[in-house]
Amino acid sequence: MFEDKPKTSALPEIVVPDILPNQPILASQPQAWKGIIVEHHSQPPFEIPEHCLPQDLIAIQTGPPIKVENVVNGRFQSGYSVSGDLSILPAHQLNWERWYGKAEYIAIRLEPELVVRATERSPEANRIEIIPHLRIRDPLLQQIGLALLREVKAEGTISRLYAESMATTLAVHLLKHYSASPPTIKNYTNNLPPSKLQEVIEYINEHLSQDLSLAELAAVVNLSPNYFVTLFKRSTGLSPYQYVIHCRVERAKALLAENKLPIIEVCDRVGFQNPSHFTAVFRRFMGTTPKAYREETRN
To answer: Does the predicted model carry a pTM greater than 0.85?
Structure first.
């Protein structure tokens, strides 16, 4: 049942339209996370002329209340946006917007192809239509937006695997709750076959020094990212991201105990992007720093 799944092709690099007066305060790099960009904005009062976005946009208000006017698909709406409100604007739909006062928000841009993949490429995939929603509440989308922003703020610790897992969750959520005719998204109750699970675990352990991606791991066993995440978690009790971090810490413990490599080289060999991130994660798992752990194992 697994062999006939196509390997996942690479998503195109996101191109962000230059339609705002100010650049984002913070933004993930387009080449770092495939299919998703996360930005933190602080924009002065402004009017965006009528335009079409190339990506699906989720905008989450983080600042003080502001008055906002929109025209989406020819329909005018006006209201106040407060912290925690969010708007969903689909790709390739005409919209116009004006706001009064400083707009502070998180912008999550999703490549439409990523959203299509969440359907497991079912026959319904070509009929996906995300419906615009303005100034609504969605705790899950807000939580994911804040978590991704924290990743962007933690320079040098951004994980492709984490971001792409969150992007897949976002895509499935959009399809289930904000599409015109929600496509069939399977609820999987089975696990990965033992041979497939062993195959992906071996791949993870052989490539711990690399910045692994979700699409890469899913392709090892010829599954779509959404299907892979679900079955992997059912099989191991951990998300792919959590499992990879666990493997990195275990490998680091072994290398530290050998006492042959400098700690900075241990950090590099197990795939942490800088020593501070390595120390923070190691301390969270072990309750001590890599240096202190090494000294403890000598005794």
So the answer is: no
